[in-house]
Write a structure and sequence with these properties.
Radius of gyration: 24 Å
Bound molecules: adenosine-5'-monophosphate-propyl ester
Largest sheet: 7 strands, mixed
Number of strands: 32
Helix content: 25-40%
Number of helices: 18
């Protein structure tokens, strides 16, 4: 989307917060908190005091080598220690840390003490496998406790994790593994999805043929899919066997605040996914503070973030945020509509979920069923509802507010990215809300909307969304590519972080996100690069060139429309269409939802670059006179 796209701002409704919500909130006056946050160093240093440091920092922010910012200089800390160990000396010792539920109705609970023992065993086991501080462990796992344990075990010993979303398939998996050069892969026999078991082991077996750095594969027997020990190759071991006999104690590594924590790959405009690198101290401060203030987390909350752990939402807010705050995090494996579209409401009722964080696409999907399933359950325990990943249109916002929240609870639309690590633009529960707006930058963060030169644009006019000051959970670089980090995010508009989203601001300073300005699609909240999809298309023998664009879809946000030039001798008949869809799915996984394929003789190009903008304009019947 281009920044000058005109969209009329006709949403005038404003909703005041409920008195009880404000009375109980950590932050009772969001505007005062935003004022406090203007002194970023003072603000974030104060928040950092909530964590347990082995050694306190001697400088909050180092800006001497922009844009390579550093936070909490010389501070020493450990994430697993703060997320798990410190709670076992408190009355939270036997409090449920992880509540795992799946679509078959199975459940598993791990208290903080049980999680502590399990993480330590896994940490010791990883050490025995030769994993050292600074090395990377890859994970290709379903939403399951073993994934959380493995991530925490890495952070305990100072190893990085690189989690690959289990909905991605062979091609996407290989690219990420090889770039991360991981020595260990932790995977599972399968994952539950809509009544079926997806065989993750088979996908990773295929991928591993092309991943030479992996020395050991740890297999979690999660679904009970038939794998015998004798089926395992010499470099494979079952998770349970690996942990056998390991001591349940492990000293946490004293990590420097700026030591790398994890790499997470995300789609960009180039064909290759970008390895987003997060570091330790600032990430912990940013994630725990935002979750505490934005979702107003208290000790007795039951927190449920449906975000898959394979993406940043799951890293920051399914796993780390809630554990750093010592609350219970519900981890659900399955789809929102299986066995029926009442599943999520039934879980909220059964466990008494209090705070719920999900994606607009899931909300729009469930909205289609109206009250039919909702009326079967009592979901009145809910106190805050939030979304992330793509715009929450005002219709879906109103549905959440009225039908789910009974006009009583705040609807929190949060804007952030893999790169930002934490929520950056979002209302707080005490804020006045406007349906469809992400409100304002959170306390301690400064956002603006500017033109290409970095000048603020007038009220109501579209522009580039930028972040003007560093924030603690910001990514520190692109893994192994400092140059691209500068080039993509910091060079385009000097002095600020360019998010590549287009937005507007209204007369009250509220921000309205319009969409992405680059060639990245948002399909059901998953970020997918057009270039990645195109290279999947051209890796099929029938296709010589391909260009893809996002086509808006009422439920998924966007689906892919592909324009393909076929090689001689091929025709785009039903059989080939099916084959191409299957092929792209094989390469990228079910996240790449193809809505339509069209055969063309040529693609609009300028100096060798495909002009997707032209294809999009044509598709939408827009004027092309400026070409
Ligand atoms: O385009 C914005 C959209 O998601 C992008 C970031 O995607 P990803 O790195 O996968 O992270 C998603 C979860 C943090 C953004 O550049 N986006 C995210 N939140 C919103 C949004 N678009 C509109 N409204 C939001 N609340």
């Amino acid at each position: 989307m281009r920044p000058d796209t005109t969209v009329l701002l006709d949403e005038k409704r404003v909703f005041k917060p409920d008195v009880e919500t404000v009375e109980n909130a950590h932050v009772k006056n969001w505007e005062i908190e935003i004022e406090k946050g203007k002194d970023i160093e003072k603000y974030w240093a104060e928040k950092a005091e909530d964590l347990d440091w082995f050694q306190k920092w001697d400088q909050v922010l180092d800006e001497s080598n922009k844009p390579f910012y550093k936070w909490f200089i010389n501070g020493k800390i450990n994430l697993a220690y703060n997320a798990v160990d410190r709670w076992i000396r408190t009355n939270k010792r036997n409090h449920v840390a992880i509540l795992y539920v799946n679509e078959r109705g199975d459940e598993r609970k791990l208290t903080y003490y049980e999680l502590y023992c399990e993480v330590n065993k896994m940490a010791n086991a990883l050490k025995n496998l030769g994993v050292k501080k600074g090395e990377t462990v890859a994970m290709y796992l379903p939403m399951c406790p073993e994934l959380v344990v493995s991530m925490l075990a890495c952070t305990k010993i100072g190893a990085l994790h690189s989690v690959v979303y289990s909905g991605l398939s062979v091609g996407a998996f290989v690219g990420r593994m090889n770039h991360a050069e991981a020595k260990i892969l932790i995977t599972a026999d399968g994952t539950y999805r809509k009544g079926k078991i997806i065989d993750l082991k088979k996908i990773s077996d295929e991928a591993l043929l092309q991943c030479p750095t992996i020395e050991t594969v740890v297999v979690v027997q999660h679904t009970g899919n038939d794998i015998e020990v004798s089926d395992l190759s010499g470099k494979e071991i079952f998770y349970e066997r690996l942990l056998e006999g390991e001591p349940a104690e492990c000293e946490p590594e004293h990590m420097d605040a700026e030591d790398p924590l994890f790499v997470l790959y995300t789609s960009g405009t180039t064909g290759k996914p970008k390895g987003v690198l997060h570091t330790t101290g600032g990430y912990m401060v940013g994630v725990s503070t935002t979750l505490k203030n934005i979702f107003d987390i208290h000790g007795n909350d039951l927190w449920w973030c449906t975000g898959d752990i394979g993406w940043i939402t799951g890293h920051s807010y399914t796993v780390y945020g809630p554990l750093l705050l010592g609350t219970t995090t519900l981890i659900y494996e399955g789809a929102p509509d299986f066995p029926d579209p009442g599943t999520w409401w039934s879980i909220i009722e059964k466990y008494g979920v209090t705070k719920f964080y999900t994606a607009p696409t899931s909300i729009r999907h469930l909205m289609r069923f109206g009250n039919r399933y909702l009326d079967l359950y009592d979901i009145s325990t809910l106190k805050i509802l939030g979304t992330v990943g793509e715009p929450l249109n005002s219709e879906a916002w109103m549905w959440l507010y009225k039908t789910i929240g009974k006009e009583r609870i705040p609807i929190i639309d949060t804007w952030w990215q893999t790169e930002t690590g934490m929520q950056l633009i979002s209302p707080l529960p005490s804020a006045y809300l406007k349906p469809g707006s992400v409100n304002k930058a959170v306390p301690g963060v400064e956002a603006d909307i500017v033109d290409e030169e970095g000048n603020p644009v007038p009220i109501g006019k579209g522009g580039y969304l930028v972040i003007k000051k560093p924030w603690p959970a910001m990514f520190r670089t692109l893994y192994k590519d400092d140059e691209k980090y500068k080039e993509i995010y910091w060079d385009p508009i000097p002095g600020v972080y360019k998010a590549d989203d287009v937005a507007r601001r209204d007369e009250d300073g509220y921000i309205w996100i319009q969409g992405r300005s680059d060639d990245v699609l948002k399909i059901a909240s998953h970020r997918i690069g057009t270039a990645e999809v195109e290279s999947a298309f051209v890796s099929h023998p029938a296709v010589s060139e391909a260009a893809v664009i996002g086509k808006s879809d009422p439920v998924k946000g966007e689906v892919i429309k592909a324009f393909v030039i076929l090689r001689e001798g091929y025709e785009l008949k039903t059989k080939l269409i099916k084959e191409l869809i299957q092929h792209v799915r094989y390469e990228l996984g079910p996240v790449a939802v193809i809505g339509e394929i069209a055969q063309v003789d040529a693609l609009p190009q300028t100096s060798g670059k495909i002009m997707r903008r032209v294809l999009r304009a044509q598709e939408m019947g827009e004027d092309l006179t400026d070409l």
